[in-house]
Design goal:
alpha+beta; 3 domains; six-stranded mixed β-sheet; five-stranded mixed β-sheet; 6 helices
Length: about 375
């Protein structure tokens, strides 16, 4: 196996070695090699100065600790999620950058690994006045494979976070449950750990619960649900004592509340009546009943909490548009074949002769609404 990569600029902890330049005048020579030089750095020729002042300090051995399940790697005392296309290469580069110490001006570090030997090609300058040059270093490279903290918790089935998906004053529909499962699967698939942290899925009449062994995985799913649905999210935390290392443990619960209304319902929000024609990607498409115009409602917590259903979609009467006049539309009920004449100040473009439509009565006023396919 061979690995190659490049690391960015490393700044030395002790700053730049400025060096003292001495000209050749006076018959000076380098006290180490005995040669004359055009410039001297602290009394030494450039070659000897570079040999005594390496660009970086490299340990004899570097150990890369990785999770054998998810590919996360240990950086210091913390596990870091591995998001690179090549997990091993990404982990080695990150650990190497942390393990070496710059002594000069380091511009670039190339990393090559093969059969337990790490080779570093470093480009830089010992002092600012020198031209850039390259140095090569070698050290042993070892891998340590174990389970990261998240995978240990996932394997133990320990609940760290729970996502509760509910709808206001109703049960989730089959379509909503199906969409929730799809969104969750896609959100977890896009992460490095995929579905490793999803411990359990509990579905009942009220909604669906998603149990996670990782808080970050739960937050990823909540964010995906917020993008897909119109939601009101509430997070609560409960203290669970301390773990073996003395760190405080907590369990988080996210309540993801969907609105009471569904596609096809007539709702009231902010004193206005709307006919919901679609809910997708966190946006509510609707028709303002006062103007019969198509609008888009901004997803907000207030829309979820304060809106209420005036007429549910099951109560709408299916009709057919049989004639369109200048300011009057006639529709015929498909249930009892009664004909209704509805007055409009301006007939909306979505009303077409011969097309299906819905009819509803609110406070004695008749409304014609677009027909929605189920």
């Amino acid at each position: 196996m061979a690995l190659r990569g490049e690391l960015g600029y490393l700044a030395g902890d002790e700053g730049v070695h400025m060096g003292r330049l001495v000209s050749e005048a006076g018959g000076r020579f380098c006290p180490i090699c005995g040669r004359r030089a055009e410039k001297y750095y602290e009394g030494l020729c450039e070659e000897c100065y570079r040999r005594l002042h390496p660009l970086v300090e490299v340990p004899e051995e570097i150990t890369v600790t990785m999770c054998k399940v998810c590919g996360a790697y240990m950086l210091g005392r913390k596990w870091v999620a591995n998001r690179g296309p090549d997990p091993i290469k990404h982990a080695v580069e990150a650990v190497v950058k942390r393990s070496i110490r710059a002594r000069g001006i380091v511009e670039l570090v190339r990393v090559e690994y093969q059969r337990g030997v790490l080779r570093l090609v470093v480009r830089g300058r010992a002092v600012e006045s020198m031209e850039p040059y390259e140095e090569e270093y070698e050290c042993k490279l070892k891998f340590s494979w174990r389970l990261c903290d998240d995978c240990i918790q996932a394997k133990a089935g320990r609940e760290v976070a729970r996502v509760q998906v509910r709808a206001k004053d109703r049960s989730l529909s089959r379509e909503e449950v199906k969409t929730v499962r799809k969104v969750v699967a896609e959100a977890l698939e896009s992460t490095m750990r995929r579905g490793l942290d999803l411990v359990e899925v509990v579905e009942d009449e009220g909604g669906i619960d998603l149990v996670f062994s990782s808080l970050s995985a739960a937050k990823t799913v909540v964010s995906a649900l917020e993008r897909e649905f119109v939601t009101d999210v509430l997070e609560t935390r409960k203290s669970m004592g301390v773990d073996r290392s003395g760190r405080r443990r907590a369990r988080s619960t996210f309540r993801v509340l969907l609105p009471q209304f569904r596609k096809g319902d007539v709702v009231e929000s902010g004193g206005k009546l709307f006919y919901v024609t679609g809910i997708e990607r966190g946006v509510v498409k609707a028709i303002d009943l006062a103007t019969s115009r198509r609008i888009v409602l901004r997803a907000s917590r207030a829309l979820v909490k304060s809106s209420r259903i005036i007429v549910d979609r099951e109560s709408l009467e299916p009709t057919m548009v049989i004639s369109i006049g200048r300011r009057e539309v006639q529709v015929m009920s498909l249930k009892n074949f009664n004909v209704y004449s509805i007055h409009f100040e301006k007939i909306p473009l979505w009303i077409k002769e011969g097309a299906k439509a819905y009819l509803t009565v609110i406070d004695g006023r008749y409304y014609v609404l677009p027909y929605l396919e189920s």
